[in-house]
Amino acid sequence: MVGVVKTTKYHHGDLPRALLEATADLITEQGLGAFSLREVARRAGVSHAAPAHHFRDTTALLTALAVEAFQLLNERMKLTRSIDDPAERLVQVGIVYVVTGRDYPAHLAIIARRDLLDPNDPAYIEWGSRSYFFVEDRVRELAVHHNPSLDVDIATRLLCSAMQGLILLNAQLNHIAERRGQAPADLIEQARAFMHLLVTGFLAPPPADGLERGFGGQLLAAQLPSS
Length: 227
Prior knowledge:
This protein is mainly α. The protein folds into 2 domains: 1-55, Arc Repressor Mutant, subunit A, CATH 1.10.10.60; 57-205, Tetracycline Repressor, domain 2. Helices cover 66% and strands 0% of the residues.
């Protein structure tokens, strides 16, 4: 049975919005591999040449979608400012990140694909930095109140990597669970569990002899063959 392809109705004067919505729908339905300006134009109901009036190429259109993703993240993460406890606030920041990925899968799938984007685009830099610095500030608040020895930079990188990784790998992780006879895990409950585990670690002081010495990280890395 042939599936019904979703189309975006173009309203005169707002073609960029129609193109962004068509792009998000296409990536959500068929993945990044199916993306093309021609297909986006078809879904938006315009000629294949029309997108060039607003986006010079596929890179520009995907970069605009990534900018919109960061704007959505910023808007949603700001809602956590009303939470008083820094630890719970940080937990909710991570959950909001993943909820945004659930609600806007195409947007969050593209934000880190620097091979498909223009990493020097001013808006991409600005909004990507705002999102990252918002998370970093929440980590810093937790450190100030609960663990001054916390490495804020490393903790922020870990948090962002964990949440983005959960969004991107959720389907594969559930496939592994199903092969084991387990029920698929709820994405948001996983995000909550991830964040509680991370924040619990952030609240704890480091081992007295240091993480790398305590776990032998430097020794193992030195033994691995280089590519």
